[in-house]
Amino acid sequence: MSGSPKFTSPSRRLRRALVLLALLAGLVIGGYYLFRPAPPPIPEIDWSDADPEVVQAIIAARDAVARAPRDAAAWGRLGMLLRAHDFEMPCVQAFQAAERFDPTNPKWPYLQGLTRILFDPAGGLACLQRAAARAPADRPEPHQRLAEALLEQGQIDAAEQAAQVVVQRYPRDSRAGLILARVAAERGDWAAVLSRTEPFRTDPTARKRAALLRADAYRRLGQEAMANAEVELANSIAKDESWTDVYVQEVLALQVGGEVDLRRGIALLEAGQAAEAVVAFELAASKLRNPLRAQLLQARALNQCGNPGAALRLLTTVLQSEPAAVEGWFQLGVSQFLLGNPRAAVDSFEQVVKLKPDHVLGHTNLGQALSKLGNRAAAEAAFEAALRCRPDYEPARKALAELRAVK
Amino acid sequence: MPRLGISLLMACLFASLPGCTPREPATTDPSNESTEPSWFEETTARSGVQFRHQAGLTGRYFLPQVMGSGVAVLDVDNDGRFDLLFLTNTTQGGSTHQLYRQLADGTFRNATAGSGLDFSGYGMGIAVGDLDNDGWVDVYISQYEGGRLFRNRGDGTFVDVTASAGVALPQWGTSCCFCDYNRDGWLDLVVVNYVDYDPSDTCTVGSGRADFCPPNHFKGTASRLFRNRGCGRDGHWLGFTDVSVESGLAARPSNGLGIVCADFDGDGWPDIFIANDARPNHLWMNNRDGTFREQAVLRGVAYDGAGHALADMGVTLADLDNDGRLDLFVTHLTSELPTLWRQDGPGQFRDVTTAAGLARPRWRGTGFGTIALDFNHDGHTDIAVVNGRIARARVNSPNIRPDLPAFWHDYAERNQVFANLGGGQFRDVSLSNPAFCGSAEVARGLAWADLDNDGAMDLITTSIEGPARLFKNIAPKAGHWLIVRTYDPVLKRDLPGTIVTIRHGTTKRVALANPGQSYCSSGDPRAHFGLGSIHSIDEILVNWPDGSRETFTGGPVDRVITVNKGSGKKS
Q1: CB-based contacts of B214: which residues, under 8 Å, 6+ apart?
Q2: Is the Cβ pair B21, A126 closer than 8 Å?
């Protein structure tokens, strides 16, 4: 045994190699954990004045990041929540962290780019370029926004390339199509402007802007009548509808707090759903640090949905603490008038025009209430005051004419 | 092979080290980059001007507080030297508007007391012009809570004639100017009105934090046009008539901030451009019968090239590419870009901001006052812009003036200067102008004048809760200059809106004599030319605002000349 050469059996060699490899792997993994960069610090957020519900949502997202500081989804959610509530600087930091831990996802550089381009155009553009490079085939938004940013910064050829990426996949994409039309306009190729805008003449997301571009093109081609027709069309359209952006929608869906309820209430009121608006404004008032605006809108909605008594009760309370609230006095006057008390309404409308001497409706309603009381001279003066504020205000002009005709 | 595998493993594991992550770009503020000579030197300290703008108590987010106030250059006492009028923006604390008279040595003396302009108010804009043709400049001051009109007594002091002149307005006026829209020889008054503001209304951003309300939170209001009735048979000035409805201007309420009146289409009749905040601009074309038609969309100046209605504020009109036509430059928000509309056909404009090299400034700003002038006399008109935000900053600007109250730090920004390289191509030279652009403040008013009669246009700025500042033009001059005063000896006054063309051989240069530009401000009423190598001029062609044209003999340059209406050759 003593003179025999030392042989190691293959199985032992394998075992040794495995042990060595395991040691090495342990070393590498240990080294990685030892030397890997620390996760970024959670951004500082100044939420003085912020709504409690907003603060609560952001704290929950921050806690999630604290529990899993290398989790891209947690960072991304924090970033989106911050962005949804206008904490723009800290949201950029959160999106940077999300991108670091999820470097193939276009969402994080895209959302970062959308925010950053507002105050750092070059930095924002770089983010959008990364997002576009990573965007899957079914997500045109990073390419669209990149093309717009490039065009804004004067990189016309690059803008065209970015828009072409979208158009090749979605030939009817109005956002990219308009960019290509603007690129043609920058180059003075007016025939191309017309052909590139042609598909979007009835597209609700692009028809106004298409008409403006086409008017310019026709004029430069010497076709004045066509240009004027496009101008008329553009003037007849209030605004193009917004483009869909799934990334932005995801951010907006995270909005919480009284502001969300306030906006919903305003939309309901504008849609003529005053009763539903009352509920939304009440909810908003219960959440907002300063509930005044929500309360005044609630009073307006109550007046509109035929409940001036409730409006009057609400306003009586509100005006005790906010005696300078012009809209409060105005809605109070409306409530009083609707409840058959023009004398009280006169007092309220007088308060309105005292606080805001150019309140056209205040003067007009004061005139109406004074007319109701039979005080024609004072009513006439009130209508005249309304017309001094807004000389083309038809209701005041008409009321004044009627008053003078009776006289 | 195992080594290679381990190396790859290590490379992948450490891929997330900082050096491997996407790098964020460095700040675009290379402060030591430029060694070019500065164009401006601040002379406030030795000028004698000690006006400090006041905006009242903060914390209520009272919108007028963040929108004012302007400054005017005017010769109140006809001594041939420009005086200065500064507006304050509060009714608290004893602060008043202030008038400074220029003395023979070029310094200024506070002449507010007893001037008739020594009152407080939410001052916004100033229009300067001789409304009664008595040879003395009068003043209209627009304010939140109503503007006021002052007649010059003929001794450099003023009397309030607001009520008797028929211009009492309860609305919130911003920029304003005098312009003879009906060519009857009497200056009419245009007052741009902003929004139907309710001071008890409040706004918050998404977090619930309060800030100044955006303009579209309120309804817009119509701008007002007052026709000057001239003098009666007894020589008594009759005041104004409100013709806002009859003229058509009342039909389009909006969020007006900036104004310039000039003949936009070359038909000899003054037109009115109004810059609207966050709404399409208005270009009121003169129908020659006392009425106007609104044609901003038709003429390409309602929206920017992308079809967006931007936050349009300050306005200046000048020939920026030496093609003989006046181009329009309008300032916007920090998140937007200013827009340069080039006039490329009579009365037809096109957004050339990007092509002109204005799309990549050193830094961005919310521009208010602006003026296009050839600061270095190289024959190409440059642009100056004063900045200051209207909503809290995402990132505070560097170099905030140390004396700016903390509340306003979030709104402070640095000014900008763009040098015209020729052919309408611009380069941002803000870095090489530290006096004018180096410190951040919430600037609003910008007026211009050759205060020291050296032929170069100097600048005067105002900022919220900041000192008024005077900047002497010290740009190394690359050529000659000419200043042309356009005067009517019969009317005894300057003629704003006059377009002056000078010719040297086949070379022509065009400038507008018009103090009513910028934002809420009024500047030097004369036409200024930087001439480059042009050392003499053959003739001066004058398009008077009444539509008549005259030609005057040229001559040497580097001087101020007065062209008297009626003494030239009719053309």
Answers
A1: B203, B278, B391
A2: no
- Does residue A362 belong to the interface with chain B, where contact is any CB pair within 8 Å? no
Q: Which residues of A touch B250 (CB under 8 A)?
A: 390-392
Confidence of residue B31 (pLDDT cuts 50, 70, 90): very low
What the block records as the tokens of A133 is 């490079």
Inter-chain touch A119–B334, beta carbons under 8 Å? yes
| ipTM beyond cut 0.90 | no
For the four alpha carbons of B478, B425, B412 and B202, in that order, the dihedral sign comes to positive
Question: What average pLDDT is seen over chain B?
Answer: 92
CB nearest to A152's CB, from B244, B297, B359: B359
Tell me how far apart the alpha carbons of residues B499 and B507 are, in angstroms, rounded to a whole number: 16
Residue ranges of alpha helices (H) inside A36-120 are 52-67, 72-84, 88-101, 107-116
Helix axes A10-35, B2-13, angle to 10 degrees: 20
Tell me how long chain B is: 571
**What would the pLDDT profile of A243-302 be if each residue is shown by its tens digit?**
999 999 999 999 999 989 999 999 999 999 999 999 999 999 999 888 999 999 999 999
d(CA B24, CA B123): 43
Report the greatest alpha carbon distance in chain A.
139
Question: Residue B410 gets which letter from DSSP?
Answer: G
Whether the CB of A50 is below 8 Å from some CB of chain B: the reply is yes
Rounded alpha-carbon distances, angstroms, from residue A329 to A48, A223, A244, A312, B558: 31, 55, 41, 10, 63
Partners of B549 in beta bridges: B543
- The average pLDDT across B59-71 equals 94
What pLDDT score does A6 carry?
59
Chain B residue closest to A113 (CA)?
B24
Q: Please give, rounded to a whole number of angstroms, the shortest distance from the CA of A393 to a CA of chain B.
A: 9
Of B91, B95, B71, the C-alpha closest to B83 is B71
> What residues of A are in contact with residue B198 (Cβ under 8 Å)?
326-327, 356
Q: What is the 3-state secondary structure (H, E, C) of B301-362?
A: CCCCCCCCCCECCCEEEECCCCCCCCEEEECCCCCCCCEEEEEEECCEEEECCCCCCCCCCC
Q: Is the pLDDT of residue A33 over 80?
A: no
- B18 vs A contacts (CB less than 8 Å): 37
- Cβ(A315)–Cβ(A302) below 8 Å: no
What pLDDT, on the 0 to 100 scale, is given for residue B11? 34
pLDDT tier for residue B30 given thresholds of 50, 70 and 90: very low
- How far, in Å, are A19, A330, B158 from residue B347 at the CA level? 85, 45, 39
Interface check for B221 against chain A (CB to CB < 8 A): the answer is: yes
pLDDT tens by residue, A40-84: 999 988 887 788 899 999 999 999 999 999 999 999 999 999 999
Q: Where are the alpha helices (DSSP H) in A172-291?
A: 174-186, 190-197, 207-220, 224-236, 246-252, 258-270, 274-287
Whether the CB of B10 is below 8 Å from some CB of chain A: the reply is yes
Q: Is B59 on the interface with A (CB under 8 A)?
A: no
- Cβ <8 Å between A324 and B13: no
Q: Each residue of A219-254: pLDDT tens digit?
A: 999 999 999 999 999 999 989 999 999 999 999 999
User: Measured between CB atoms, does B145 come within 8 Å of chain A?
Assistant: yes
Which 8-state DSSP code applies to residue B540? Answer: E
Angle, in degrees to the nearest 10, between helices A174-186 and A141-152: 20
| A305–chain B Cβ distance below 8 A for any pair | no
Q: Name residues 282-341 of chain B within 8 A of A (Cβ).
A: 297-298, 300, 303, 305-307, 334-335, 337
Statement: residue A198 has pLDDT above 50:
yes
Question: Residue B206 is nearest to which of A85, A115, A292, comparing CB atoms?
Answer: A85
Q: For residue B28, which residues of chain A lie inside 8 Å, CB to CB?
A: 120, 122
Task: Write the DSSP symbol of residue A106.
Answer: T
Contacts of A139 (CB under 8 A, 6+ apart): A106, A246
